């Protein structure tokens, strides 16, 4: 993705959060991005195209930020904290700020839903790779790293999208972290 695309998609995400996906218009996004509507249509083909690109962009930015945070994190516990803060709590806060969070969750069609699934798959692979690095000697009697990564990302995503209270989500994530550490037999 080019830098101009990144700025456009950042603007689109701000508009979707501000107005909701249904009420946001290409004119709103164009104004926020400092472009003409025609430029947006030429680049993304329409609102569905910019929705899909925005979901992909948000997933990429989230994963990039998590991985950047992990460079300074010493182990599994610290890395889970970073993942939960960036990929779960910050997205939860963004959804709570949106007047139409439900339409964000429902997606805008099959392509948008596929983009969201792709982002979750990338997070799962990222967690599995991180587990390979931080837990090199996984006990033989526990699920493998890919299965643990699926457990962590699926549980966190479900909680992020279904809970309505940040304090409850924070408690849930602390429990998920403790369960993951216990499962991998990793000390705090």
TrEMBL record:
Q: Which GO terms describe its molecular function?
A: DNA-binding transcription factor activity; transcription cis-regulatory region binding
Domain HTH tetR-type: from-to ranges: 2-62
Q: Report keywords, A-Z.
A: DNA-binding, Transcription, Transcription regulation
Q: Does the keyword Transcription apply?
A: yes
Q: Which Gene3D superfamilies match?
A: Tetracycline Repressor, domain 2 (1.10.357.10)
Statement: the UniProt record of this protein carries the keyword Transcription: yes
Note the Pfam families from the entry.
Answer: TetR_N
Q: Which residues bind DNA?
A: 25-44
Q: Which PANTHER family does its entry note?
A: HTH-TYPE TRANSCRIPTIONAL REGULATOR BETI, HTH-TYPE TRANSCRIPTIONAL REGULATOR RUTR
UniProt name for this protein: Transcriptional regulator BetI
